[in-house]
Amino acid sequence: MELLSGADMIARFLQDEGVEYIYGYPGGAALHIYDALFRQDKVKHILVRHEQAATHAADGYARASGKPGCVLVTSGPGATNAVTGIATAYMDSIPMVVLCGQVMSHLIGDDAFQETDIVGVTRPIVKHSFSIRHPSEIPEVLKKAFYLAATGRPGPVVVDIPKDMTAPTERYEYVYPKKVKMRSYNPVTRGHTGQIKKAVDMMLKAKRPVFYTGGGVVLDKASEGLTDLVKQLGFPITTTLMGIGSYPQSDRQCLGWLGMHGSYESNMAMHHADLIIAIGARFDDRVTNNTSKFCPTAKIVHVDVDPSSISKTVRADVPIVGPASSVINEMISLVQGREVAHPEALTDWWQKIDDWRAEREGKLYEPSSPGEALKPQEVIEALCRVTRGEAYVTTDVGQHQMFAAQYYKFDKPNRLITSGGLGTMGFGFPAAMGIKQNFPDDDVVCVTGEGSFQMMMQELSTCKQYGVGVKIVNLNNASLGMVRQWQDLNYKSRHAHSYMESLPDFHMLIEAYGFTAITVTTLEELEPALERAFADKHELVFLDVKVDPFEHVYPMQVPLGAMRDMLLSKTERT
Amino acid sequence: MRHIISILMENEPGALSRVVGLFSQRNFNIETLNVAPTEDPSLSRLTVTTVGDDRVIEQITKHLNKLIDVVKLVDLTEGNHIERELMLVKVKALGAARDEVKRTVDIFRAQVVDVTPSLYTVQITGDAAKLDAFLQAMAPVGILEVARTGVSGIARGDKVLSL
């Protein structure tokens, strides 16, 4: 029997659980835990420069690796700084365990120094949370935390740890719990076979079907199955922003992504479909536009592991509660050997889709003429060419995020890493850091804007400390582009606080940390600068690319309209 | 429509705040709420009455079921059920009204459980409508204080909400 202090139990548990990296920042209430981490070398602690970055880095790590991210922060401000990152992970269903120091038990409720009720603060943005009440509970509670974070619909779990629970003088028996059982938590492992049969029958009889798939497919590692199923049926597929790459975008059957800034053909196909097969997507407002005008002629099959996602905003005709992978596999076996009932209708449907495609071909944006400011879209297309479409691309939030999603072509899941649900500026750079540590030999690039980057740029220091060679492509339009776009469209171009006066000299800023910065202003400079940036996989390079501040993101759905109601450029609309 | 949802949940600190928080977070409505441990001290039973159309009630039950602390729940209004609420009321009982109050208490099968020279404390159980009717009857006499437990309920017949 082994006797360990609470702090040593935490360190040991993390080792036994196979945690490779823990992102954090020390402080009074977490110091016993930090001391225990110091006395071991299996779990690597990454010292960030702000707790929000710790959560985003762990989040990026989790998205790219499929394993839960792990964070350690101290009580009070340490924990509250982590809140935005926890909410980000919650909205995108990312598995994460956040260990928070807390003041000593006997001080809780007294407004002690650096005390915050973090379990209360985070209650609406966690899958679950725990407070440690006795050191001997630590192994079991941590096991439950990791189990809950990673299973069913994944999400962040907060564990609040009062300092006295980790005191070095109090030792208790430690056994790594191999299994965990919770009477109140039994995530479904497969869908209802009758419902799946019904769905497949509808799929085979459909005349204008479209797959609409989301982050659930990526999270459940169901991309291969999905690709098989979609290819077998020959149906078109559109994905959500979170589902990008779960079906190869270079394939003809892929219409791109859908919603507010989704492709013209995706939104048109959705609007005119007679059957929508939604898998691991949640019909959120940035996809559906006005739900009362959403896809008027479509029956809806909705597969999701979380029953509360089904019929939340749009009523499903065939609800199927189950994990994407097992339901897809069951669908594949039911489809095999059977033919679609209306092949001629499907041919007509494809003809219609190809017509929509042709309508917008070559009209997506106007490339820059020599001497003019670069178009942000051109930068992303060049980035895609230089990295052969194989990089991990993280983004912040705004126009650059949409351009990255529109113009980089992703053929693999988990390659576009973006805050889709919460829309967190400052997410991209720390997320890239977390990914690069897990995949040091891959290209990891953060596409950002000067507004977002300034929210988390202190992490340059972390990258310096750990030699993290991420690339940063700063689409610098010297304004908060998406805000500006809305102001152009809705506020007669009154640009209230959407421009950035007093921008730093990014070149000097990056060099101050000892990194390379390249400023790009013309098309001729662009590709050589990108080639240079990606020449050494282990070097952090910052590209400050000056782009046209007047550019808008299109298509853009018209507020309160149907899927098909879109602005296509500054002068055209459907 | 009004629904009575009965929930068995872990008798853990914080469990109640998750349930209550869910209602405000998701813009659901709580009319009454009552909660106490069951015969199994590791479980609490919470009964909430709420109002909403079928879509809203479906979302409420799904989200409640998603809470890790919630073990099982039932929407009692889906079937035959018994619902009761307990109320304690202090009413003025002076002069001629004193006898009238006692008579009304008897009509409602309520009980006077405490007495002073100037007031009665009445205990009454029943469904919400009965309690409302009693309050209405007492209003002219003068109601001094009301304490209601909120609705508790149980299914009729063989149906049992247990683990």
UniProtKB/TrEMBL annotation, chain A:
Residue span(s) of domain Thiamine pyrophosphate enzyme central: 196-330
Thiamine pyrophosphate enzyme N-terminal TPP-binding domain ranges (all copies): 5-119
EC number annotated for this UniProt entry: 2.2.1.6
Alphabetical list of Gene3D superfamilies matching this protein: 3.40.50.970, TPP-binding domain (3.40.50.1220)
Cofactor: Mg(2+); thiamine diphosphate
Cofactor info, note text: Binds 1 Mg(2+) ion per subunit.
Record GO biological process: isoleucine biosynthetic process; L-valine biosynthetic process
Gene Ontology CC terms: acetolactate synthase complex
Keywords assigned: Amino-acid biosynthesis, Branched-chain amino acid biosynthesis, FAD, Flavoprotein, Magnesium, Metal-binding, Thiamine pyrophosphate, Transferase
Enzyme type, top EC level: transferase
Annotated metabolic or biological route of this protein: Amino-acid biosynthesis; L-valine biosynthesis; L-valine from pyruvate: step 1/4; Amino-acid biosynthesis; L-isoleucine biosynthesis; L-isoleucine from 2-oxobutanoate: step 1/4
Record field: catalytic activity: 2 pyruvate + H(+) = (2S)-2-acetolactate + CO2
InterPro entries (alphabetical): Acetolactate_synth_lsu (IPR012846), AHAS_TPP (IPR039368), DHS-like_NAD/FAD-binding_dom (IPR029035), THDP-binding (IPR029061), Thiamin_PyroP_enz_cen_dom (IPR012000), Thiamin_PyroP_enz_TPP-bd_dom (IPR012001), TPP_enz (IPR045229), TPP_enzyme_TPP-bd (IPR011766)
GO molecular function: acetolactate synthase activity; flavin adenine dinucleotide binding; magnesium ion binding; thiamine pyrophosphate binding
Coiled-coil region: none
Domain (Thiamine pyrophosphate enzyme TPP-binding) ranges: 396-545
Similarity field: Belongs to the TPP enzyme family.
NCBIfam families: acolac_lg (TIGR00118), PRK06466.1 (NF005058)
PANTHER family assigned: ACETOLACTATE SYNTHASE CATALYTIC SUBUNIT, MITOCHONDRIAL, THIAMINE PYROPHOSPHATE ENZYMES
Designated name of the protein: Acetolactate synthase
Originating organism: Vreelandella subterranea
UniProtKB/TrEMBL annotation, chain B:
Keyword annotations of the record: Amino-acid biosynthesis, Branched-chain amino acid biosynthesis, Transferase
Domain ACT as annotated: residue spans: 4-78
Catalytic class of the enzyme: transferase
EC numbers, comma separated: 2.2.1.6
Cross-referenced Pfam families: ACT_AHAS_ss, ALS_ss_C
First and last residue of the signal peptide: none
Protein's GO biological process: isoleucine biosynthetic process; L-valine biosynthetic process
CDD domains listed in its UniProt record: ACT_AHAS
Keyword Ion transport: no
A single MF term (Gene Ontology): acetolactate synthase regulator activity
Catalytic activity: 2 pyruvate + H(+) = (2S)-2-acetolactate + CO2
Presence of the UniProt keyword Transmembrane helix in the record: no
GO cellular component terms, semicolon-separated: cytosol
Pathways involved: Amino-acid biosynthesis; L-valine biosynthesis; L-valine from pyruvate: step 1/4; Amino-acid biosynthesis; L-isoleucine biosynthesis; L-isoleucine from 2-oxobutanoate: step 1/4
Subunit structure: Dimer of large and small chains.
Record's function text: Catalyzes the conversion of 2 pyruvate molecules into acetolactate in the first common step of the biosynthetic pathway of the branched-amino acids such as leucine, isoleucine, and valine.
UniProt similarity note: Belongs to the acetolactate synthase small subunit family.
Name this protein carries in UniProt: Acetolactate synthase small subunit
Source organism of the structure: Vreelandella subterranea
Taxonomic lineage of the native organism: Bacteria, Pseudomonadati, Pseudomonadota, Gammaproteobacteria, Oceanospirillales
